[in-house]
Amino acid sequence: MKFFDTHTHLDYLAQDLNLSVSQLVENAKKAQVERILVVAVFVKNFAEVTACSRADPQHIVYGLGLHPLYIEQHQQNDLDLLEQHLQTQDPNCTAIAEIGLERAVAEVGTPELWQKQCEFLDAQLQLAKRYDLPVNLHSRKSHEQLYTFLKQAKLNKTGVVHGFSGSYEQAKRFVDLGYKIGVGGTITYQRANKTRDTIAKLPLDALLLETDSPDMPVFGFQGQPNRPDRLRVTFESLCSLRQEEPELIAETIWQNSERLFGLGSR
């Protein structure tokens, strides 16, 4: 079996643990994690994210994007800088990420900043369409609004709603649009009944695995930075929720991930 961690902030993890990207990749490979997607959150970490991939281009791909949590910092010129990076057509840049909408944090949910969030999401979806790239999407308390944007955007490569913790009905609407659902550490907690039930019922070909390293720690490692090598913990929880054999689950999700974000997708 082999695994693809489809959502990480590997640059932050390396800083938190004081480890090199190469060491993090070696640790991941020991856990059969063969591919890692590193995502950006603002212009300031575009260079670090790109450098992560260049440190090990066979195992690390990356995405560049402007995260809604940092909407106050983003400037219109940042969209131009994002497009300049995309114009280089680096084959390891395989996504626009991390982008989306945030309504769980009051500070970025004021009418003015919500409008700005929507404008930046729309602009980045248009870039994804222009450069034929999938998207890796943040969504908290904003599934209905995000769905509307995605339905209107009609992307060729679609993408994934990462760290999903909504209802089955919400997830199914995204899946019916052609989007994947990111399965993270939430399902390792028995109390997360709604998310666990949702992931158990969705089609297997709609699922991806992720750690959101260094965030979203898995059960048993609370309070510690999450890491790509702990993707196996989430995988084991997923297997406990599904009827399929573990080998089929692993192979299907690997293929889902490679088609959407892997080196073979460009």
UniProtKB/TrEMBL annotation:
InterPro entries referenced in this protein's UniProt entry, alphabetically: DNase_TatD-rel_CS (IPR018228), Metal_Hydrolase (IPR032466), TatD-like (IPR001130)
Superkingdom to which the source organism belongs: Bacteria
UniProt GO MF annotations: hydrolase activity, acting on ester bonds; metal ion binding
Residue positions binding a divalent metal cation 2: 138, 162
UniProt entry keywords in alphabetical sequence: Hydrolase, Metal-binding
One GO CC term, this protein: cytosol
Residues reported to bind a divalent metal cation 1: 7, 9, 98, 212
Family statement drawn from the similarity comment of this UniProt entry: Belongs to the metallo-dependent hydrolases superfamily. TatD-type hydrolase family.
PANTHER family: D-AMINOACYL-TRNA DEACYLASE, HYDROLASE
Record protein name field: TatD family hydrolase
Organism: Ursidibacter maritimus
